[in-house]
Design brief:
Layout lengths: L1 E2 L2 E5 L5 H11 L8 H9 L3 E7 L6 E12 L2 E11 L8 H16 L3 E6 L3 H9 L3 E10 L4 E8 L6 H4 L4
Parallel strand pairs: 5-6
Antiparallel strand pairs: 1-2, 2-3, 3-4, 4-5, 6-8, 7-8
């Protein structure tokens, strides 16, 4: 997927040091992922990770990951992370990364779950705009800060929450 100065492609092992550095910058108060965590995520066969870049082969300015879990006919997806460097926010990188993740879920017809800080209004608006709804609160979810998180769900493509039995 490419638009003007916005490229979303596969996150690769050579991107790991940049991702770990961005984690330290953006999530210093909430246990940023070290390089070993990114390596493990990329090596797991049920995960897909994407990178946002300004040019082909350029440095990572954002990244996102999703898991597909369950068995055929009963799959669900969980978004692990979406992060965009502070210098690149507000330019559509987060929206493009989310679209790549949702395409993975749509390919297998799975609902998507995620957690988001209750005080992250920008991310909440992004997710709600993509069809997610709040389904619960996880108290003290982010550590060590103790920040709460909303659990959000987007039903499988073509399914409404009423059809799945969830609240509207």
């Amino acid at each position: 997927m490419t638009t003007s100065e916005l490229i979303v492609d596969a996150l690769e092992h050579p991107d790991i040091p940049r991702c770990a550095a961005l984690e330290k910058l953006m999530f210093a108060d909430d246990s940023p992922w070290p390089a070993t965590a990114f390596r493990a995520e990329l090596n797991a066969p049920y995960n897909r990770y994407f990178a946002a870049r300004e040019q082909p082969g350029g440095p990572v300015v954002g990244y996102a990951g999703i898991s597909t879990l369950g068995s055929p006919g009963d799959l669900e997806c969980e978004i692990h992370t979406i992060a965009v460097a502070p210098t690149h926010r507000g330019r559509g990188y987060g929206r493009a990364l989310l679209a790549a993740l949702l395409a993975v879920a749509d390919e297998c017809g799975a609902p998507v779950y995620l957690e988001v800080r209750t005080d992250n209004d920008t991310a909440i608006a992004l997710y709600e705009g993509a069809g997610f709804v709040r389904s619960g609160v996880r108290r003290n979810y982010y550590q060590p800060s103790g920040a709460d998180a909303y659990t959000m769900i987007r039903p499988a493509s073509g399914v409404t929450l009423q059809q799945t039995g969830g609240a509207q």
